[in-house]
Amino acid sequence: MIPDQLLKGQKALVTGANSGIGKATAVAMGRAGADVVVNYVAGREEAEKVVEEIKSLGVRAVAHEADVSDEDQVVAMVNRTVEEFGTLDILVANAGLQRDAPLTEMTLARWQKVLDVNLTGQFLCAREATKEFLRRGVVPEVSRAAGKIICMSSVHQVIPWAGHVNYASSKGGVQMMMETLAQELAPKKVRVNAIAPGAIQTPINRGAWDTPEAREDLLKLIPYDRVGDPEDIALAAVALASDLMDYVVGATLFVDGGMTLFPGFATGG
Ligand code: BGC
């Protein structure tokens, strides 16, 4: 349950918000009282549905199409957010994708696409959001921080992942980018943190859960013995963005049912 005024009056931008974790997070931010920009790159209809769902909660929401790896489009998106809502308080840099292949079949295009969206995209969004955070500064009635950035990482910022070198490298990069920005921006009262989801049931990993055999294999990697829901991440994002977590700076919150606990060692080693 989300205390419904936890983010009252705050303005949030969630990238990749028309499906999966981003969608659940955008709706949860709305439920917590924030106005929300629902970014998407493809799938306008789904984005509009998310907007309608958020509006029905009694807050404002708009859909905005932008490719987070395109500098001009990110600049325009943050400008639009400020035009619509007056300012920005929370960025959830969530947009991400996988283009899997074994190394010898990993084309430069696949490598580059994943790095562009998952890492460069977060960098561009963080940079533009921070300009607005610093322009406006702290408004104590709204939040103790001038701004909050949540980078959507993955357990694969620490777990190597054969066949996914582009994705794992992008998330390793997200960790260091997040920690560096957290160090750089903390004195300016901008809190930068990450969430590292484990296996969350979304379109990105359908093959890992949509047959009984795949699910059984997947559950061997999850001590808590259930596949995560987008809502598990959304609730963590709301809490992390709120002043409940005002002293949390530069942290990665693993929301993974224990996937990073080396479950193979529960019976071995
Ligand atoms: C990936 C999923 C995967 C999960 C756990 C996520 O970051 O996007 O495909 O199921 O990590 O391995």
UniProtKB/TrEMBL annotation:
Domain Ketoreductase: 10-203
GO molecular function: oxidoreductase activity, acting on the CH-OH group of donors, NAD or NADP as acceptor
Family matches, as InterPro entries: KR_dom (IPR057326), NAD(P)-bd_dom_sf (IPR036291), Sc_DH/Rdtase_CS (IPR020904), SDR_fam (IPR002347)
Keywords, ordered alphabetically: Oxidoreductase
Family according to the record: Belongs to the short-chain dehydrogenases/reductases (SDR) family.
Name under which the protein is recorded: SDR family oxidoreductase
Species whose genome carries this gene: Streptomyces sp. R28
